[in-house]
Amino acid sequence: xxxxxxxxxxxxxxxxxxxxxxxxxxxxxxxHFTNNIATPALPQxxxxxxxxxxxxxxxxxxxxxxxKLFASGTSxxxxxxKTANNNKAAPFDWxxxxxxxxxxxxxxxxxxxxxxxxxxxxxxxxxxxxxTVSGQVVTHYLGYNANGSGTITAxxxxxxxxxxxxxxxxxxxxxxxxxxxxxxxxHAVSTVERQQ
Length: 196
What we know:
Blueprint: E1 19-25, E2 28-33, E3 47-49, E4 61-69, E5 77-83, E6 89-96, E7 102-107, E8 112-116, E9 127-134, E10 137-142, E11 145-151, E12 163-165, E13 177-185, H1 191-194
Antiparallel strand pairs: 1-2, 2-13, 3-12, 4-9, 4-13, 5-6, 5-12, 6-7, 7-8, 9-10, 10-11
C-alpha cells in the first residue's frame, strides 16, 4: 500500500497472483513473482498501479527498490515500467539484462532513449537498487553507491497507462524476483536523502 497518501496502491489484476512470503527479509514479508519467460502465454504475475497520481514521473524523480532478482537465462527481467502497449517507455521502463545490468528507458511511447548501469546486480541476493532522474541525466545506484549514469535526450511524455511491477504492459518482459519495498520520490534525491 502507498504510504504517501497519494493513492498509488498496487493491486493484482492477473489470474496468477504473486505470493506473499512472511519473514523473508529481516523478519518482514516480501512479494515473490514467478513468471515463465519461456511460455509467455501462461498467466503471468504482476502488480499494477493506476496512472492518475504518477504524472511526476515525466520530470525529475527517484525510484529505489529492495529486491532479490533471479537470473532469467537470455531474457530481461522487468523491475518497474510505465510504457505504452508497444513496450516503449511512456515515461519510463526499468529493467535488468540477463547479465544483471540495469537499464532505464525514458520517452513518450514513440521516441525513446536509454541509460544503463555499469556493475551487475548480484543474482538471487537481496540488494537495494535505484535510479534518479535529474533533467536529462539518469543515475543508477547499486547498494548505496552510484552505478553509472547517462543522458537521455528523448522527448518524455506520459501515455496514461498504468505502472506495472513484475511484468511490462506489453507482456513482453517479466520479472522473477522477490520485492520487499518500492520507494518513489517526485524529485531527484540528494546524497543525504538517498543514504538515510
